[in-house]
Amino acid sequence: MKSSIPASFRCSCSRSTLQSVGGRSRRHASTSSSASSTANAPTPSRKARWLAIAFVSVAAASGGAYVRAQSPKSSELNPETFTKYCLVSREPVSPSSSLFTLRPKYPSDSNYDIYEEAWRAGVWSVMFKQPQLQIGREYTPLPTTAATGLSVDEENEGYLRFFIRKDPFGEVSRYLHTLNTGADIELRGPKIECAIPEETRKILFIAGGTGIAPALQAGYSLLNRTTSTNRPQIHIVWASRLRADCLGGVSDTLNATTQVSASGSWFSGWFGSSSNAVHDGVDTRVSSPQEPSLIVRELEALKSQYPGQVTVDYYLDEENRFIGKQDLAQFIKPVGGGEDQDIHNLILVSGPEGFISYMAGPKVWAQGTELQGPLRGIIKELNPKGWAVWKL
Ligand SMILES: Cc1cc2nc3c(=O)[nH]c(=O)nc-3n(C[C@H](O)[C@H](O)[C@H](O)COP(=O)(O)OP(=O)(O)OC[C@H]3O[C@@H](n4cnc5c(N)ncnc54)[C@H](O)[C@@H]3O)c2cc1C
Q1: In which order are the strands placed within the sheet that holds 122-130?
Q2: Domain shared by 102 and 213, yes or no
Q3: Of 240, 324, 342, 379, which sits 20 to 30 A from 103 (CA to CA)?
Q4: Total number of domains constituting the chain
């Protein structure tokens, strides 16, 4: 497979001037069988499901935020005005990416609740301001895990962490990588990118590059709903350009999925496998005697916290391992059991523009709003009946 990951994130959604991003854009969920969000008018029942997902998004995105927006205090994160944060640390993860830790410049008791509301909803982002150019870009807070997260005090103080790739030609990511500890950074948000419906039981998350940050969020939000009767599951497929980003990552299912195609069992291939990391004779470990990368540690922490509910497969451009149609075919099997299934089973795709296009077709702009656009790409070719597909 040709590498579909371009040299940089170039999401048009992220190319925002501060003047032009006043309101929240409403995102549409593409269900698997709707070939085009514009060409195919939904049937009443399909429309109802579509509306259910859209409603959850809109309600989660706007409900609490609206109340807060009535009187945002300058010290509290809100979607209308920028709030000052301080850069606590910037640690390199790989030659092209870093972990940014920020804390609110002025203490506010309400930040914790504001974040919590967003975590419960699903995948969310905040906008960072580049003050010289007056432009903003969205970045995805990393969840806190027991193994690698923040201390309780730091959490209570409203610290946030971000995994940010430096685009050598990018205005905001390059600017952020010039900042020193103690620098001010202004943030606006939260913005709910995808509210995960309460009914969701399985997520297949296809991530490219820093698209892994929303995957961690989705995992955190979904698995937090675990009870004795509800054990949701997430499988993350992550393509990285550099070994350093996913150092120490061991794929869970690559070998098992090749076996499972013979047995035809989608489910056992996904969650019934061990950490055997040999795929068609190729060692799929991103092996190194060094410490696993930050993101791999985060993923491992999620796995330990929710045993049997999380699996991850790693693909690495540097080693010519790319996510192909066959790899996804193991997981995207048509789901039976009625029309409502596509709220239970979610495919999320996140990453650079070209990555999303290759996987699920491009997002589109209409009348100043970013829409999901028709489902295309290799996911469409796999006919994911019974799955909702959402491009982040
Ligand atoms: C919801 C969301 C969450 C995100 N979360 C993260 C995250 O957690 N971590 C992360 O690293 N990124 C994330 N991103 C991406 C991020 O918002 C930025 O898009 C990214 O950092 C690049 O921004 P930039 O300003 O540095 O680059 P830009 O200045 O936007 O440039 C990006 C690239 O486009 C090229 N370019 C610019 N203008 C043109 C043009 N006119 N024609 C052709 N090419 C052009 C540039 O050369 C560069 O290579 C997220 C994006 C979204 C939408």
Answers
A1: 16-17, 135-139, 122-130, 184-195, 83-94, 97-104, 160-165
A2: no
A3: 240
A4: 2
Greatest Cα pair distance in the chain = 60
Q: Which two tokens stand for residue 87?
A: 């850069």
Confidence of residue 260 (pLDDT cuts 50, 70, 90): very low
Ligand 1 binding site (Cβ under 6 Å of any ligand atom): 8-11, 13-15, 125, 137-140, 162-165, 167, 169-174, 193, 210, 213
Q: Which of 27, 80, 67 is nearest to 50 (CA)?
A: 27
Considering the domain architecture, whether residues 231 and 374 belong to the same structural domain is answered as yes
Same-domain pairing of 172 and 236: no
Same domain, yes or no: 174 and 207: no
Q: How far is the CA of 275 from the centre of ligand 1 (A)?
A: 34
Q: Is 165 annotated for ligand binding?
A: no
- Closest residue to atom 10 of ligand 1, CA basis: 164
Same domain, yes or no, for 209 and 266? yes
- Report whether pLDDT(370) > 60: yes
Most ligand 1 atoms within 8 A of CB, residue of 5, 14, 16 to mutate: 14
> How far is the C-alpha of 176 from the C-alpha of 106, rounded, in Å?
20
Q: In this structure, what CATH number is given to the domain that contains residue 104?
A: 2.40.30.10
| Same domain, residue pair 226 and 121 | no
Q: What is the pLDDT of residue 148?
A: 58
User: HEC string of 296-345?
Assistant: HHHHHHHHHHCCCCEEEEEEEHHHCCCCCHHHHHCCCCCCCCCCCHHHHE
Using the predicted structure, report yes or no on whether residue 244 has a pLDDT greater than 70. yes
Q: Give residue 209's domain range.
A: 52-64+195-391
- Residue nearest atom 26 of ligand 1, based on CA coordinates: 170
- The mean pLDDT value of the chain amounts to 77
